[in-house]
What we know:
Layout (H helix, E strand, L loop, with lengths): L11 E2 L5 E6 L10 E7 L8 E2 L4 E8 L2 E5 L2 E5 L4 E4 L5 E5 L5 E8 L8 E2 L4
Antiparallel strand pairs: 1-2, 2-3, 3-10, 4-11, 5-8, 5-10, 6-7, 6-9
Amino acid sequence: MDVVNHRDTVPFTTVDGSTIRELMAHRNSAIRNQSLAEARLAPGAATTPHHHKVTEEIYYILLGTAVMTLGSETRPVGPGDAIAIPPGLRHTIRNTGSEELVFLCTCAPGYEHSDTFLESVS
């Protein structure tokens, strides 16, 4: 049985600029087709606009407030909101609050730097 505690994970910065702790993935468990990570963004910070060719994601906001941009649509998000991010769609999230933004991110297949493609800020 694989049980990974948050305190036993090592944070790292993804290609898009968020700091994540990989809670479950092929690198630390028997899971092979998806991943679960906790992501954090400081107040005022945003991920670099990007897309994934293969990976679909779900963001689930735990703490803080943000603005999520997905394709041409932008809307405010906060605790309890789940955001579906299909493969190939440009996206970014910006912390609009005064506290750290904390959210869960699931990826299928699991997160890989090689499937993150940065886009110019417009």
